[in-house]
Fold this protein.
Amino acid sequence: MAEHQPDNQADDSASGAGAETTPEASDQRREKKSAGKASAASSLYETVVVVIQAVLIALVFRALLYHPFSIPSGSMMSTLLVGDYLFVSKFSYGYGRYSFIGDWSFIDGRIWAGQPERGDIVVFRPETQPDTDFIKRVVGLPGDRVRMLDGVLYINGQPVPRELVGEFSGFDQHKRPVKGRQYRETLPNGVSYMTLDVDENSAGDNTRQYNVPEGHYFVMGDNRDNSSDSRFDVSYVPEDNLIGRAEVAFFSVEEGSAAWQFWKWPWTLRPDRFFVGL
């Protein structure tokens, strides 16, 4: 009779053979572990490089090309509303002392200088407040004679045509209602835009004549009765103090809201003011 081998003996033999570790197997495991660590390090390095490149591109974009700007007050109603976000092209007028972050007051003049035209909406820093960005519309060029008479803008002795187009209703930065008449004003070069008249006899409706010096510009807010501009303490704007020209309103939220409060967007966004050319 043939002798029968116990099942447990066969199992033990198989288990013993599988548990045996050869030097070659150990080397292969070490190589796989080392390769995994190298791959992880390479992925981390690539991620860091991509982030650094993105930051550098954003810095170059902001420093040399387009400067994002938000509207803090109602001085440019109804063209620009509180809560609008704009792109301001820095290259339009070249680069000066206020074109970059930090103190560049040692720069004299402008690099690749360009000249604003009547009707341009410009961002600048007035001589009286060199640490604050202002945004207004250029209405007077060097050598122009500018004044307001009975609420009408005069340039070089000629009234600028304006046409009543209707009523405006909105809110300022303090959520206070703003109501007034809207006029379409057309400058001598054909640039046309809306102005707002909320007070028919305000301090800025009748002024003396301003003779714009060489190398300076006369600016006004489209909200003619609520704007700190060249009629008042802002005075003439030196060309060296220009930052750029407003090009497009790319985003907008209601007055009193913040752009970063994304959980409120369904109710605070103003999509009809997205990507509006200026």
Notes: Helices lie at 7-19, 23-65, 265-268.
